[in-house]
Amino acid sequence: MKELLRPHLLSLTPYTPILPFEALSEQLGIPADEIIKLDANENPYGTLPAVADALKNLPYVHIYPDPESRFLRRALADYHQIPVENILAGAGADELIDLLLRFFINPGDTILNCPPTFGMYAFDTAINGGQVINVPRLDDFSVDADALLEAVAVHQPKLLFLATPNNPDGGLLRSEIIDALLEQNLLLVLDEAYMEFAPPGASRMKEVAKRENLIVLRTFSKWAGLAGLRVGYGVFPAWLMPYLWTAKQPYNVSVAASEAALAALKNADQLEKIGQKIIAERKRLYAALQKIDYLEPYPSQSNFILCKVIGRDAAKLKENLAKQGILIRYFNKPGLDDHIRISVGMPEQVDVVVRALTKI
Ligand SMILES: Cc1ncc(COP(=O)(O)O)c(C=O)c1O
Q: Are 208 and 189 in contact (CB under 8 A)?
């Protein structure tokens, strides 16, 4: 029966998600609430009490959600001071990445990718029958601007996804590179999933409504602590919006996700304070990691820190910590296989991970 599948799907490399929390807890024999989970850049403070209340009191779960996510989009427009007409909500930024690729890719079209970076750009390109051409980042994980502009000229991609701050290193994309890319004949998609942890002024979201070729993606997964509910949003140029409305899945954002996101935005001041705590803790974690002789941390503007592991096996390091109930991320990929990434936790979690790393 396999031959019935679309041929490009037969050769896909499967996405390797991290093992679910509960499965890991079972495997390690450690209760879930004792595990220190610093492997997926989630918010260690969890959700706000107002979000928990909103979820307890959901009134209309038996009714389909609003296909236009009107209340959520209005709240986002108010919060960011941008036109509501340019905003589309999605089941996480992930859904919007896939949606964009479905809109633009014809089988065989080329998409440029700047690895190491978030895996979904290449994954969704492949799912949608596109061809990925890599323009690897430099040794410090910054984008190789010359190589990228040259590749744009040669391959003329329709879309280009760049994360800023980038995952896994946490570095921001330089604004000169963004400006140079906006001069090209392509749609630039800035994935700002972690922008709330970066210095003010780094986002390009406010420019979207004034341009034709810029898209900015955001998520409630990280800053707002709603990763499990799947809700994100994008800001898109006006000309693209009618097509997005026509072809998106009608009920893509669930009632629960929408209400939770609304409650989070109503209490954005509390989220901003939590964001500040995470930023302060990132500085403390960075300083502590610098003191560990076999680790070289990279400066990060996000809620995680990538470290090069010197003279030790990074995979074993991750395993060793996992046995102690501390989860960090190891990437079994060329260029990253001697690195680990640690999400910024609460102060007591940071103390535990630093102590464990120091002892090893
Ligand atoms: C750069 C980047 N973009 C998007 C996402 C996914 O966001 P969401 O949970 O909203 O799908 C992630 C998640 O790890 C990410 O690292």
A: no
Mean pLDDT for the chain? 95
CA of 304 to the centre of ligand 1 (A): 13
Atom of ligand 1 nearest to the CA of 227: 9
Is 16 part of any domain?
A: yes
Q: Nearest residue CA, atom 12 of ligand 1?
A: 193
Q: pLDDT tens digit string along 324-333?
A: 999 999 998 8
Residue 17 pLDDT grade (very low, low, confident, very high; cuts 50, 70, 90): low
DSSP 207: G
Please give the pLDDT value at position 10: 87
Contact 220, 232 (CB under 8 A): yes
What is the predicted pLDDT for the residue at 2? 86
pTM over 0.90: yes
Q: What is the residue range of 224's domain?
A: 60-267
* Pairing label, strands 159-163, 131-134: unpaired
132 & 239 share domain? yes
Going by the DSSP 8-state scheme, the letter that residue 325 receives in this structure is: T
Ligand 1 proximal residues by C-beta, below 6 Å: 41, 92-94, 118, 163, 167, 191, 193, 219, 221, 227, 232
Ligand 1 pocket test target in 123, 216, 221 with most atoms within 8 Å of CB:
221
Residues 73 and 186 in one domain: yes
